[in-house]
Amino acid sequence: MSHIGRPGEPDKRSLRREILAVRNRLTADDLRETSAALSGRALELPELARAGTVAAYVSVGSEPGTRALLDTLHARGARVLLPALLPDNDLDWGVYEGEGSLARVQHGGRMALFEPAGERLGPDAVTAADAVLLPGLAVDTRGMRLGRGGGSYDRVLARLERAGARPALVVLLYDSEVVEHVPEEPHDRPVHAVITPSGVRRFRQET
């Protein structure tokens, strides 16, 4: 386990910088290998393997690759929802029907995203998901997730809570990104599991 982010060490901003610097050194071969490994490991998680509807996302840049997993879930008959970023940083959703159903969208000066090209289902569509894949930069031993800081998935989690929806919350990371401690804020909620190329780890949830 990595010791990045022990209590009293980097705050969220510096921890993000540290992790992104490591990701940016990954090669195209690294990304291909980890994407295939993550897809295989993900289906070891029963909540994901048996999910009828999965809210996911298309990885970009040096993020842990989701493309192979999206195709596997789609081929198995799962309904895969993908996000479309709205001007206020909230997320709308559309259905993934294979690589041809994606559109490359540039949002201002940010990195271009791949979003569903078809019908928009509205921000509340995520509440129908049996499992939600959350992007992240790290997760700690309690299941607390470090996001990129844009707040989009904080809104998703708040929407799920308001709706009384209880999907499995899962984050895909590289092995070194499972850390001892992630700084948290009052609105932060733990995930149920993390998937890395070497395996699946679950977190016990408080009742």
Give a short overview.
By secondary structure, the protein is of the alpha/beta class. The chain contains five helices and twelve strands.
Describe the structure.
This protein is α/β, with parallel strands linked by helices and 207 residues long. 25% of the residues lie in helices and 23% in strands. The strands form three sheets. It has a seven-stranded mixed β-sheet with strand order 3-2-1-6-9-11-12. The longest helix has 15 residues, at 28-42. The model is unreliable at 1-9 (pLDDT under 50).
Write a concise keyword list for the protein shown above.
alpha/beta; seven-stranded mixed β-sheet; three-stranded mixed β-sheet; 5 helices; globular; disordered N terminus
